[in-house]
Amino acid sequence: MSETDRVLELAIRLAREAGAIQRKHYETAIKIRTKSASIDLVTEVDHACEALIVERLTDERPDDAILAEEGGGSDREDAAWRWVVDPLDGTTNYAHGYPRFCVSIGVEKHGAREVGVVYDPLLDELYEAARGKGARLNGRVLQVSRENDLGAALIATGFAYDVRRSAEDNLEHFAQVIKRARAVRRDGSAALDLCYVAAGRFDGFWELKLHPWDVAAGLLIVDESGGRTSDIHGGPPPRSGRAIVASNGRIHDALIFLLEGGAPR
Question: What is the pLDDT, as a whole number, of residue 264?
Fold first, then answer.
């Protein structure tokens, strides 16, 4: 077994263990507080899931760097392997009992995306990918959709937590795309949105102001499913997650044209 295989195996195990915590406490009385804005939530379940993942990684791979959403772990530039963890992507959904949330674990090797695992504990859907080895959903090989007409495409997006106060609010992009695509969905979990592109459920996805933990796993899963990922101008997707576009590849240029201000055609 290669080291990548061992990392993937560990990521799958940790995602399932954290998912079990989410499933256990779903729709129960939990403590909720706000972070950067009144709509930016964190729960005790976020912290419990992150603590579990960080503790296991610290014990089993002490030389690896860890970047986790809630501040756990130790991120180091000199580490060969870096784990990028969103312990509960879709916290607002989780806090409201809306069943769209997941665990997202991406792992980089020397700065390149190497492993991605996303686990939806309610549907018991586990998405996994390793660089150059394809992507799978519960063991089934994933393949993006073959839709080549943006007018017949189902697209997903999201809005940042500063949407109430920032002029860069994604609303102009939303207006452009919704006038051209078949439909646009906003489901509140970027990691799952990316996986749905990989699975052919969505034909495309874009979002602004994401973070590394939102996209580290999902971007690799899309790439390994035959899709295309980029920044909002068609360049390489940034590790920061700042502005991301993902698609089946066939509608990518048309989607970027709209996001750059092109008129619907």
Answer: 44
Question: Residue 252 corresponds to which tokens in the numbers above?
Answer: 């990518």
Cβ-in-10-Å burial (0-12, 13-18, 19+) of 241 comes to buried
In whole angstroms, what is the distance from residue 138 CA to residue 136 CA?
6
Q: Which pTM does this prediction carry?
A: 0.94
Helix, strand, coil % over all residues of the chain, rounded to 5: 30, 25, 45
Task: Label residue 74 by pLDDT band (50, 70, 90).
Answer: confident
Count of positions (residues) in the chain: 265
Alpha-carbon distance of 53 to 68, in angstroms, equals 9
CB atoms within 10 A of CB 46: 26
Looking at domain 150-259, its CATH architecture is 3-Layer(aba) Sandwich (3.40)
